[in-house]
Amino acid sequence: MDGAGDAAGEDMKAWCRAHPKIELHAHLNGSIRESTLLELAKDLGEKGVIVFEDVEHIITKSGRSLPECFILFDLFHVIATDHNSVTRITREVVEDFAAENVVYLELRTTPKNNESKGMTKRSYMKAVLDGLSAVDTVELVSSPFGKQCDNSAKSSMPFCNRGCGAQRKRICVRLLLSIDRRETTAAAMETVNLALELRDSGVVGIDLSGNPLIGKWQTFLPALTYAREKGLPVTIHCGEVPNKEEVNAILDFCPDRIGHACFLDEDDWQKLKASKIPIEICLTSNCKTNCVPSIKDHHFVDLYSIDHPMILCTDDPGLFSTSVSNEYYLAASTFELSKSEMHHLAFIAVDSIFADDGVKHLLEEIFESYEE
Ligand code: IMP
Ligand code: ZN
């Protein structure tokens, strides 16, 4: 790239970071700070829980292979058995998203049971909520959760996204509870019941995730159907591996959103396009996990050409060494989108959030008033 090209690239990068953004597909423990992961892993090594040297080089290297990513997933599960660590990770993750001008975050996490650590799904979620309460370098909008965003919050938004004012960054956070594909129907149902119990604490929906090679759709369907009956929106990881039968069943279920949508047959594509179900697009994640051959060959291109609702997301920014701003820049530079097109893409994400209309109106105001 020549000098002018470099300058244009840098300008777009800065623009993507400064622009308000909505993140709808981020896994809590996959968003852990690298420095925190290193520190907590070292601590576990000293306690003899893990062999630190086995993971140190994977944590510190920049380009991780897929098998190395799965080693880190296992490590996340060990780290997440400590309530204090869960609280710390939650606080830091929210602060990190706010720092790059994410104004609305739907953070998803899998409530975990671990008898030996005295952890129940409920106590795990209390640790997450404690992390939200502990956020102090940025301001949580509508905190404590459960209240509608009020006028005082409204009048002070949009806030300084360009780092030029005294106001602190503000972020509105909502939670999705994930059902892990390793779980039974009863365990999935327990997660939905917990989500219903925590509705007043900011839980707005249910996710189905975990290793796509494990578990059967029929196992999770009763809990997902129950969530829907109770008015909880549902998002589902769909088509991470070729599995025609499951993709068909997911599309028939018609979730409120789906994640990824990588391995779909032509008839499923037609069904998905006709459904207009919003898709959470995770460019870096899809490339690193070999779900797409390259970013330029991503199905984003086809879907963008027909105006299918899409939201640019990170999936696991800690695991994949990315950020929402970086995902925006990747889309802008790879698909040659202008600032005005990127602004539109960021703005229409408001339509796909699971929070109430009060939050939607606040976000609309932020995007409407943002000068490109
Ligand atoms: P947590 O739910 O906060 O512990 O976040 C990490 C968990 O999210 C992982 O253990 C997986 O179950 C799930 N997860 C993260 N990334 C992916 C993905 O790309 N596909 C499916 N599941 C994922
Ligand atoms: Zn995911």
From TrEMBL:
Domain of life: Eukaryota
Domain Adenosine deaminase: 20-366
One Gene Ontology molecular-function label: adenosine deaminase activity
InterPro entries: A_deaminase_dom, Ado/ade_deaminase, Metal_Hydrolase
PANTHER family, alphabetized: ADENOSINE DEAMINASE, ADENOSINE DEAMINASE-LIKE PROTEIN
UniProt record similarity statement: Belongs to the metallo-dependent hydrolases superfamily. Adenosine and AMP deaminases family.
Stated name of the protein: Adenosine deaminase domain-containing protein
